[in-house]
Design a protein that fits this description.
The structure is a homodimer of 283-residue chains.
Chain A (H helix, E strand, L loop, with lengths): L2 H8 L7 E6 L2 E7 H5 L8 E3 L4 E3 L5 H18 L9 E4 L9 E4 L3 H4 L2 E13 L2 E9 L10 E2 L2 E4 L6 H13 L3 H4 L3 E11 L4 E12 L13 E8 H10 L5 H13 L10 H5 L8
Parallel strand pairs in A: 1-4, 7-12
Antiparallel strand pairs in A: 1-2, 3-4, 5-6, 7-8, 7-10, 8-9, 8-13, 11-12
Chain lengths: 283, 283
């Protein structure tokens, strides 16, 4: 493994394998061609052409969401979508625009709609040594079981804001009280586009940093993380560079933290790949 | 103006207007089609095809550089290249690879070879107030006269390293002594691709931050900066957002600093454009 490998695997998207999903002409998703073909039988919801798929279900957000849920039901039964996650994400052409519909998280990669999450780098300083909080994901997680993770990470569900999601996830995942999480510093976003077995992940992760006090110890409440530990930043970077111990996208969040905090030297042979590989421009 | 406008103007590159310049099959530059056509008469140096231009001059770096200098002489006489800058940049397929030739800085946009620079954000803290050092460029500068600039900025000339360039420019541009500049923190790179009147700027700026002590006052020695002042970060961001007072690419370096230091709130309507617009992936 190398830093480059992690970046490349999160950006293995190939536009030739995909057609746009549009609503009123605006792109809202990216359908792999096999997934687009699987939508042909739902002609009251989607118009499938050779160059793209247009959403044709009519009505308000609730009505369109219900029509799409009906499609997802069939896709789950057919095994095209693994299962319902019972958590919905807003689907819109761009962040901040009114949603066109709400989509169950389990179907997000099938449709390639953009998903937004929040990741929190928790760190502590002791003299010149910087340590990062690292969580180990539960073996029961559907995505990346047992992998290492940031202190807090979660998807932004429909109707929820960035800060609101951060506060809620910080409490559930690591028992970080509101009085501490309010000191988290917004530090940008990591973005990538990745083909998986299920379709396309078009992800934007809002990144925050939080320096934790000496007496802080995170405690998980929702069962998603089984263990936390403080690792020196150099050990974390070594593991990112040499292994796949961290969840695929967490490698990118850690590399972004490393660049911003001066933990990578500019003569590192992978420095430019990292500095220019973590923020795929949005289209 | 808006943050987005600055990002868009530095990324106005349109691949349809350009053909690759290659050496041994590897891309080393980006020629606008009119510039490619202007190379047809130099058939001992370039083979101009409809889909690209291949370097055919043979010999070692010195010999190839000399052959290209002969071409640049004619381009300057014809007005395709404004003038010799008498400073050369290494040309290679990627950073860190051995150079194919050295090119006068004045001809870099004509050939669209990648150029590397170093930019230093100098800042000072006083309580909760963060101030940035801002320089005003000399009216005699060929590029962006009178515009506002970072504390230190300079191109990486042939054979010189990043840190070496930073130390040299810090001394010449702002009288920053070696004992202070060694505390500069590498913080990544800003990258963009821009069409100008002359051709293509394919730029990578290595970014450093330096917190300056209370008794520090920069002094210019090389005549490139006529005046320095400390501005509050909020005033700087306001001027970036609303004006073109800063040199085109300095807007991007300042926005990168702002994101990394938590100076932009995640609910800023331009937050995602900034967070994903400053680090064009290299190809």
């Amino acid at each position: 493994m190398s830093f480059r490998d992690h970046i490349a695997s999160c950006n293995n998207y190939d536009p030739a394998r995909v057609v746009p999903l549009t609503a009123g002409g605006a792109r809202i998703g990216l359908l792999r061609r096999d997934n687009a073909a699987a939508l042909q039988r739902f002609s009251d919801v989607f118009a499938v052409g050779s160059d793209g798929v247009e959403l044709v279900a009519s009505g308000d957000v609730t009505a369109v969401s219900r029509a799409i849920d009906g499609v997802v039901d069939v896709l789950v039964a057919d095994g095209c979508v693994p299962k319902w996650r019972n958590e919905t994400f807003d689907v819109a052409p761009r962040w901040g625009m009114p949603p066109v519909f709400r989509l169950d998280r389990g179907a997000v990669p099938f449709f390639g709609t953009r998903a937004y999450g929040v990741h929190l780098n928790g760190y502590a300083r002791e003299g010149d040594t910087l340590r990062l909080w690292v969580g180990r994901r539960s073996p029961a997680k559907q995505i990346a079981p047992n992998k290492l993770d940031n202190l807090v990470a979660g998807g932004i569900g429909n109707g929820h804001g960035i800060d609101e999601t951060l506060v809620k996830e910080a409490e559930e995942e690591a028992s970080i009280p509101p009085g501490l999480i309010k000191h988290a510093v917004p530090a940008g976003a990591v973005s990538y586009r990745m083909e998986t077995r299920l379709g396309i992940r078009d992800d934007v992760l809002f990144v925050y940093d939080l320096e934790t006090p000496a007496d802080f110890a995170p405690e998980n409440r929702d069962g998603e993380i089984v263990h936390f530990e403080l690792m020196t930043a150099s050990e974390v970077l070594q593991r990112v560079r040499a292994t796949s111990d961290f969840k695929f996208n967490v490698n990118l969040v850690i590399l972004d933290f490393a660049v911003r905090h001066g933990l990578l030297r500019s003569d590192d042979p992978e420095y430019l790949d990292v500095a220019t590989g973590l923020h795929r421009p949005l289209d």
